[in-house]
Fold:
Amino acid sequence: MIIKVKGYLTYRDVIGQREVEQRDNTPVLFLDFIRELATRIGGEHGCALFDENSRTVGQSVAIMLNGIHYNHLPERLNTVLQDQDEIAVFPPGAGG
Structure:
């Protein structure tokens, strides 16, 4: 199973565009994938991506699965990832 991950704006340098291959085809929850990605990234970007204390996605990022914000998925963070899914990570929006 291959999952595509893209980082945008400040996450572009940290994540870039990568494909993560899961060789054993064990089902992977979206939440577990994000937690592992945050661990790989490390530093302040990793901490912003996943909050270990609340065990959820950080409030300062927007994460989409196949173009849909995770809060709008039927199973939200408990969605089981599929082959060729695409995850996009965005920093918080700014403006005025």
Notes: The chain has one domain: 2-90. The mean pLDDT is 87.
